[in-house]
Amino acid sequence: MIRQIKRVQKFWLEFAGNNPIDKINDRELRDFVDWRVAYYGKIPEAKRPKNYKLHPTDKTLQWEVTLGKSVIKWATEKGYRGKMPLPSFSFVPKKKRVRPAFEIWEYSPVIAMVIELAPVWRLPWTFVGFSGCPKNGAPVGLPVG
């Protein structure tokens, strides 16, 4: 987490520059998203870091905006922003990446390993109701205990 904060801090410092914290509002947060999307496109390829992505994912942008808002909230609580209200802008990802659920046959290697190691691990239950997996014939069952 600290490594991520340091990475994102670099972007925020470069974006905000010497602007005082009390000048950052909703408009600046929206501008940060556009600036961040174009960031690596403006840097020569030879100077880009090893693991960069030319276009950050929506989840990355959401995390980076949230970190910026957290700093603004801290500054407000400490009185560095005076009576300025907290920005209400929040970045909502347009693309949601949802990992598909496992199929039952994908669980069978894990279940087979647990059955094999159950005596070693001294698990307080045993497996019953085995049937062969339709995909590869591996045992499939539920723990009972």
The major pleated sheet works out as:
2 strands, antiparallel
The radius of gyration computed from the alpha-carbon positions, rounded to a whole number of angstroms, is: 25 Å
Spatial order of the strands in the main sheet?
Answer: 1-2
- Beta strand count: 2
Distance between the termini: 38 Å
SSE string: HHHHEE
By DSSP (H or I, 4+ residues per run), the number of helices equals 4
Strand content: 5-15%
Q: Name the overall outline.
A: elongated
Mean pLDDT: 82
Q: Structural class of the helix and strand makeup?
A: mainly alpha
Helical content band: 40-55%
In short:
With 145 residues, this protein is mainly α. The chain is 46% helix and 9% strand. The chain has a two-stranded antiparallel sheet.
What topology emerges from the helices and strands here?
Blueprint: H1 2-16, H2 26-38, H3 58-77, H4 104-121, E1 126-132, E2 139-144
Antiparallel strand pairs: 1-2
Helix pairs in contact: 2-3
Task: Report what the structure shows.
With 145 residues, this protein is mainly alpha-helical. It is built from 4 helices and 2 strands, in the order H-H-H-H-E-E. The chain has helices spanning 2-16, 26-38, 58-77, 104-121; strands spanning 126-132, 139-144. A two-stranded antiparallel ribbon has the order 1-2. Strand 1 (126-132) and strand 2 (139-144) form a beta hairpin. Helix 2 (26-38) runs antiparallel to helix 3.
Please supply descriptive tags for the structure shown above.
single chain; 145 residues; mainly alpha; two-stranded antiparallel ribbon; 4 helices; 9% strand; elongated
